[in-house]
Amino acid sequence: MQEELTLLQAINAALFDALTADQSVVIFGEDVGGNGGVFRATEHLQTHFGAHRVFDTPLAEALIAGLALGMSTHGLRPVAEFQFMGFIYAAFEQIISHIARMRNRTRGRLSCPLVLRAPYCAGIHAPEHHSESTEALFAHIPGLRVVIPSSPEQAYGLLRAAIAHPDPVLFLEPKRIYHSIKQAVDRQAEWPDLSLSHRVCIGTDLTLIAWGAMLAEARQATIWAQSNNISIELIDLVSIKPLDIDTILSSVQKTGRCLIVHEAARTCGVGAEISARVQEQAWDTLLAPIMRLTGYDTVMPYSKLEHLYLPNHHDMIGYIQKLMEYPE
Amino acid sequence: MTLHCIPFSPPQQHDNPFDLAQCLAPNLKLACALPEFATPEWLLDIYEQMLIVRQLDEKATILQRTGQLGTYPSSHGHEGISVTLGKTILSEDIFVPYYRDQGVLLQRDMRPRDILQYWGGDERANLHGNHRDMPVCIPIATQCTHAAGIAYALQYQNSEQVVVCSLGDGATSKGDFAEALNFSSVKNLPIVYVISNNQWAISVPLEAQTAAKTLAHKAYAAGCHAFRVDGGDVIALAHTFQLALDTCRTHQGPILIEAVTYRLCDHTTADDASRYMPEAEREAAMKIESIKRLEDYLHQENILNANKIKSLHSKAKQHIEDEAAAAAQLNEAEAVEIFDSLYADLPNELKNQRTHCIHKAQSCKKN
Fold it and tell me: Do A58 and B179 touch (CB under 8 A)?
């Protein structure tokens, strides 16, 4: 069954198919019921599957995370929606202190097969708190998995895999590209491994690592590079935690150059961790310093200035040129 | 027409249903007819179980003071609540504890040695006890939303089981408690929240915690039923818990119970209550606490005599000594345990760290 879907429609399709496939799947969050979610990711699901399987919670994020935990340890497979990543912090204690720890705390007696979905990233001209990318906060939590899709096809498979996975998964949705790409999605295809990065294109001169909405910008930079005889190996990180460091290392060992792009703030960002690992394990193959192109270490600006905060493909091209010229 | 603004006044303490349920009053008189379940055998069993909890707490404190155990929270003043609650919850029900619930856990397949293993710093203790119960929850009130999630799962599965979530008075100040109680009422979940109100959250007294007349009043805003019960009266406690569980089992909604007691010990072994707890208040509470009250009643009714009381104390003490000896014999945890239950399958990036840890453990053993 092949359909042309946007990333948002792919998420809706994955939720629909997961609810159909497994009676233990339940979906809840703020406005996800009759309203179908503020972005419509859960549209029609309550009508189709009933209010016991798809329901609105009171407006309480810590509750949403805690409920998911309790359901998951006792037979259900909850998929909880946080309306925006900027509102997930009230649930942070539940995620870091309980969801990510329950399996370890009970030495495997209880586990939390659950998915926490949250739209994240900037670029939709939203009010304050609706545009941050704080995936690094969650990448620091042992016991948690964090994944970010960058295309409709990937979003479908990743979400199905996340819901079926025995570990708790934070599933971050790049809302800037919810509607921007349409792609054929095969709903029968095998789901990807949650832990693996995806080599988008093979190259020999420079490894470019990006994820989420930044991947679209990275593709444009890659196209520019091709026309300028620079061969880019583009890696879609996909799994923020755990890191698929083997894929990254094997690429950098081949290219000798590494550029990491993320829209999150720079300091202690995921790029810092990738950079450190590459330095530790592939330093002898490097032809140039590892570079990061990131958001600033500032508060995410309101919509008027967000274009200045966000890395774009022009910035990437500048960095690619710099790296290719190194050390001259 | 003038616009009327009528101030809402919260109900006062004397309003039903927030009278303190009581049967065995502090003066050892019965405030009501003795319920059928309160046979001499039942009372004796409760008494013996409470002695075991008291002995465990005393032993654990000694072990901590002599460097053989980590920080430990005694439950002096809670024994009546814990033991009657533990006796009332069915084994197929699900218990969601906080950290002062050893008296309940001992009724749910946990042994004193398991409790000592836990506070001795060994996660393997959480493999023991009722296998569907949640482990001890340390961050205050956060277990309340887990309990609501479990109750939702039970309702979804058309189960007859009930969730019992235990918390202290300080927990009622946290959002997690309010959010969980609110949701439980919205969904009419089969869940009993039991507040052991011991008047203190470490050093902060109840009047600094809330201006509500009672903690049971907090059920009002959530649209939830509530009971208030004398935490030193094992008969009223058992009756109240049974009523609440029966009510939830027949899908008549969540229930909040405030069991009123007094913390007769430090918050934990890391605390010194003499810095803040008025001595007179504590002494007054000592006179009406659950173990002494039941002991005096059983003595008064000639169910126990002084010799028998002494021998039951010795029996409980010996049991705990045996358990502590067993706890001391436990094999040591292996290095790999730090890693092996973190994920269903250990991610590749952690495998090197696991190997490193194994080597570190080996070199620690050699040194």
Answer: yes
Per-residue pLDDT at B16 exceeds 70: no
Q: What are A292's strand-pairing partners?
A: A260
Write out chain A in H/E/C secondary structure. CEEEECHHHHHHHHHHHHHHHCCCEEEEECCCCCCCCCCCCCCCHHHHHCCCCEEECCCCHHHHHHHHHHHHHCCCEEEEECCCHHHHHHHHHHHHHHHCCHHHHCCCCCCCCCEEEEEECCCCCCCCCCCCCCHHHHHCCCCCEEECCCCHHHHHHHHHHHHHCCCCEEEEEEHHHCCCCCEEEECCCCCCCCCCCEEEECCCCEEEEECCCHHHHHHHHHHHHHHCCCCEEEEECCEEECCCHHHHHHHHHHHCCEEEEEEEECCCCHHHHHHHHHHHHHHHHCCCCCEEEEECCCCCCCHHHHHHHCCCHHHHHHHHHHHHHCCC
Give the strand pairing for A239-241 and A145-147: antiparallel
Residue with tokens 């007179």: B280
> Chain B residues with CB inside 8 Å of A58's CB?
179, 182-183, 186
Strand order in the sheet with B255-260: B94-96, B163-168, B191-197, B255-260, B225-230
Closest CA to B47 of B280, B308, B326, B282: B308
Dist CA B52 CA B31 (whole Å): 28
Where do the CATH 3.40.50.920 domains begin and end in chain A? 198-325
Residue A54, judged by CB atoms within 10 A of its CB (0-12, 13-18, 19+), counts as buried
pLDDT of residue B13 exceeding 50, the answer is no
For A15, the token pair is: 């939720």
Quote the minimal CA–CA distance from B346 to chain A in Å.
10
Residue B366 confidence (pLDDT): 85
Confidence of residue A187 (pLDDT cuts 50, 70, 90): very high
User: For the whole prediction, is pTM greater than 0.90?
Assistant: yes
- Contact residues on chain B for A110, CB-CB shorter than 8 A: 134-135
CB neighbour burial string for B132-164, b if at least 16 within 10 angstroms, e if fewer: bbbbbbebbbbbbbbbbbbbbbbbbeebebbbb
Active site residues per annotation of A: 130
Fold of A2-186: Rossmann fold (3.40.50)
Tell me which chain B residue has its CA closest to the CA of residue A100: B342
Contact assignment for A57 to B183 by CB distance below 8 Å: yes
The boundaries of every CATH 3.40.50.970 domain in chain A are 2-186
At the top level of CATH, which class does the domain A198-325 belong to? Answer: alpha beta
CB count, 10 Å around CB of A198? 19
Q: B296-344 pLDDT, tens per residue? A: 999 999 999 999 999 999 999 999 999 999 999 999 999 999 999 999 9
Query: Which residues, including other chains, have CB under 8 Å from residue B182's CB and lie 6 or more apart?
Result: A58, A60, A63, B221, B222
| pLDDT at residue B102, as a whole number | 98
pLDDT class of B5 with cuts at 50, 70, 90: confident
